Amino acid sequence: MHAWLCTNPTGVEALAWTELPTPTPKAGEVLIEIKAASLNFPDLLIVQNKYQMKPPLPFVPGSEYAGVVQAVGEGVTHLKVGQSVACLSGTGGFGTHTIAPAALCMPLPPGFAHVDAAAFIMIYATSYHALVDRAQLKAGETVLVLGAAGGVGTAAIQIAKAMGARVIAAASSDEKCALCTSIGADATINYGKENLREAIKALTDSKGPDVIYDPVGGDFAEPAFRSIAWRGRYLVVGFASGPIPALPFNLALLKGASIVGVFWGDFAKREPKANAAMMGELAQWYAQGRIKPVIDRTMPMAELPAAYAHMGSRGVMGKLVMVN
Hints:
By secondary structure, the protein is α/β, with parallel strands linked by helices. The protein has helices at about 40-45, 115-120, 120-135, 150-160, 175-180, 195-205, 220-225, 250-255, 265-270, 270-285, 305-310, and strands spanning about 1-5, 15-20, 30-40, 65-70, 85-90, 95-100, 105, 140-145, 165-170, 185-190, 210-215, 235, 260, 295-300, 320-324.
């Protein structure tokens, strides 16, 4: 097997395409032949030693992937050799094969493409947990999605529409806004050239959005929160822009609004039954055509450094997927 090995987490340039012995799964594990692996923002942070999870060295990055089970370890009964699965294990995806905990593998129903599956778990689980579980979104409410053309943003648009909400998508270019419209957004804001607060006011008749989905953080957090509706819910999903914003607490008081943390990873660990039910529903929605990952492009696994560079340019719309 081959994999992109990180021996020193100083950045993407330290990764090396390395031949390694193909491992044998232990109890509770499976060996997966990787067909596709998506590139997520944590995959950049982890090779820069900036992510909260710091795996022992050396390690193979690649948090999310899909492929075919090649061997199963002792005690694994729900998966079999030849079965297609998706997995989000945190590391191991950027190679030709990997060992994964069987408990983290999502069996793929017939017709679930490996490229879509590799770009599915993180963005849809995060967005469903945020909008349905944490925000208790109701049909007819208005959702503002910041960073709407990214992976979790595009998933949030689709899930909010599936729930019967009105969606305002905010992104940094006309091209990104057009993408958001094409996947169901009812209105868009190009915050690269429009005043965010004024645009929100105009699109909501001064009422403001009931739910704000924010995976970006940074400078847009406060103007967005100042625009929230009475009893609004502000979803803190992530900080893709870098800076972690600080919001004056009096804003929450004045709007009767809630600041709601979204940490799907811990939810999955603490409430595994609820998470499994959620993933089952999302797989059904995919089969019904209600949701489908937006794939910016696929690239050969051997071109991973170029894919990292493309992601760093902020030009990605949807998900980047590496394929073997």
